[in-house]
């Protein structure tokens, strides 16, 4: 279960990630990345994740910032770029949020049952790709217009969630995730795979980075993220309950970019 949400966004993350483009020594590129005209981050980048208590604290010493698409203006992205960072936008790809400025654009036909713990929000019927694709495209257009370098669509694992009467299969999720990746790349944006551990081996070649919550707390599932690291792609990882001493050694062994965060994803963090 994802806890990456600000107040109501605990389990998700409409994220914007920012990376420091420091000097030629770091390069921030992946030697094995596909040659598309978008940012290809390399493994081992440091990161900050703030989806709550805006304005974003831009003083954190991190190469990558992950912030909300709608809650942050283009000026915040510009400030981070001027500090030598890259920025990724967080958005929800699998749920309808009534408080978003584009909420009225989603027809009732794609809204399913309530998201547990957020009864005013609804799961999206991702089988209706033809309906959702232009809506997600508009969100990624906004990402690009604000100057973000990448996008992290949340709820990329509905086939593993308690979606009630909405039956989503692994094949449905693969098709939808591939559609999201295509939209991002068509706009010159890097794209991250959020959680969805059982499909990492299939999707690591298409996605440019991974964002994971609590893989050490959840029975050491971090091993499933190895395909990203093997391809020199970063895994941006966060734990909430565990202390640094509980996971940092294993994180270093695997090559993850790990931090400890509060569950509401404010500016506070601890680093390995």
* Average pLDDT over all residues: 90
Largest sheet: 10 strands, mixed
Low-confidence stretches: 6-33
Instruction: Report the total helices.
Output: 7
Radius of gyration, whole Å: 17 Å
Structural shape: globular
DSSP summary, beta strand count: 13
Q: What's the N-to-C terminus distance?
A: 23 Å
Oligomeric nature of the chains: single chain
The helix fraction, in percent, is 25-40%
Structural class per helix/strand content? alpha/beta
Strand residues, percent: 15-25%
* SSE pattern: EHEEHEEEEHEHEHEHEHEE
Describe the overall structure.
The structure is a single chain. This protein has 272 residues and is α/β, with parallel strands linked by helices. The longest helix is centred in the middle third of the chain and has 18 residues. β10, α6 and β11 form a beta-alpha-beta unit. α3 packs parallel to α4. The strands form two sheets. Strands 1, 2, 3, 4, 8, 9, 10, 11, 12 and 13 form a ten-stranded mixed β-sheet that branches. Strands 5-7-6 form a three-stranded antiparallel β-sheet, with no helix packed on it. It is built from seven helices and 13 strands.
């Amino acid at each position: 279960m994802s806890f990456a949400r600000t107040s109501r966004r605990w389990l998700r993350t409409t994220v914007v990630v920012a990376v420091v483009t420091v000097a030629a020594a770091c390069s921030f590129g992946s030697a094995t990345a596909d040659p598309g005209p978008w940012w290809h981050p390399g493994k081992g980048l440091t990161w900050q994740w703030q989806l709550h208590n805006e304005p974003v604290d831009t003083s954190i010493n991190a190469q990558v910032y992950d912030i909300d698409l709608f809650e942050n203006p283009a000026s915040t992205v510009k400030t981070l770029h001027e500090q030598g960072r890259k920025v990724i936008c967080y958005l929800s790809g699998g749920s309808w949020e009534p408080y978003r400025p584009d909420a009225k654009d989603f027809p009732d036909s794609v809204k399913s049952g309530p998201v547990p713990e957020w009864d005013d929000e609804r799961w999206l019927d991702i089988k209706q790709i033809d309906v959702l694709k232009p809506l997600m495209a508009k969100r990624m257009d906004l990402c690009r217009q604000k100057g973000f370098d990448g996008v992290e669509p949340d709820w990329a694992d509905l086939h593993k969630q308690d979606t009630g009467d909405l039956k989503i299969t692994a094949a449905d999720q693969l098709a939808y995730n591939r559609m999201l990746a295509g939209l991002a790349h068509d706009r010159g944006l890097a794209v991250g795979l959020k959680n969805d551990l059982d499909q990492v081996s299939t999707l690591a070649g298409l996605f440019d980075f991974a964002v994971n919550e609590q893989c050490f707390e959840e029975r050491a599932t971090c091993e499933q993220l190895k395909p990203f690291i093997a391809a020199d792609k970063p895994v941006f990882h966060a734990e909430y309950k565990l202390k640094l001493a509980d996971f940092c050694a294993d994180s270093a062994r695997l090559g993850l970019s790990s931090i400890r965060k509060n569950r509401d994803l404010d500016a506070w963090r601890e680093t390995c």
